[in-house]
């Protein structure tokens, strides 16, 4: 098959409009890692670096003379994060980022198996041996029915977009299933001006 590019072949998942829309998100494979605390912390940065390292180990296999069964060329998938608050954070009437709970993830192509995950872990361990690598999991995740929208700008301004998304739910007989939400980082927030950041916001819903 030709090179799989998520910007071309999966626009509905990664490049929605700023106007909210309803989408059924299918089962997909991910490398994931859980954590808690402020996303400006060093541990958060290390979690991201480990996920990228494992994902690149898979992506670069053919250049090392290893071509897995079913392998196809693909564009590296964007970082994603599922966000929640701990019990103490839920009691506050403002957002304290020290109470955030997260699961970071990077999608993997369908050909990735448990064996390839083990290969990636061993490859990264032999290079860096990051302390958090044993916390990474290989999971299949189905989000199901969701409302999503593209948020442009600072992460701190996301509540404005969530208000629009929740109004969309009210207008279309949908109920938000949980207070947690997913973020997909279309822009590299380490290198992009805050006002230009593009982040997909998504939460699960049910029809009422």
UniProtKB/TrEMBL annotation:
Residues 19-202 form the GyrI-like small molecule binding domain. SUPFAM superfamilies: Probable bacterial effector-binding domain. Signal peptide: none annotated. Pfam families: GyrI-like. It comes from the Bacteria. This is GyrI-like domain-containing protein.
């Amino acid at each position: 098959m030709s090179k799989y590019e998520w910007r071309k072949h999966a626009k509905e998942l990664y490049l929605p409009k700023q106007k909210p829309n309803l989408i059924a998100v299918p089962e997909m494979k991910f490398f994931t890692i859980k954590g808690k605390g402020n996303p400006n912390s060093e541990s958060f940065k290390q979690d991201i670096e480990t996920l990228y390292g494992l994902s690149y180990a898979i992506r670069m296999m053919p250049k090392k003379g290893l071509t897995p069964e079913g392998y196809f060329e693909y564009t590296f998938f964007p970082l994603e994060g599922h966000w929640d608050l701990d019990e103490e954070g839920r009691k506050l009437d403002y957002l304290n980022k020290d109470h955030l709970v997260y699961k970071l993830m990077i999608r993997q192509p369908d050909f990735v198996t448990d064996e390839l995950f083990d290969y990636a872990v061993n490859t990264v361990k032999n290079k860096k041996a990051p302390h958090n690598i044993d916390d990474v999991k290989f999971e299949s995740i189905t989000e199901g029915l969701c409302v999503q929208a593209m948020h442009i700008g600072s992460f701190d301004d996301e509540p404005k977009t969530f208000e629009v998304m929740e109004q969309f739910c009210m207008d279309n007989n949908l109920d938000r299933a949980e207070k947690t939400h997913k973020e997909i980082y279309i822009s590299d927030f380490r290198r992009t001006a805050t006002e230009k950041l593009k982040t997909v916001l998504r939460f699960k819903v049910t029809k009422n």
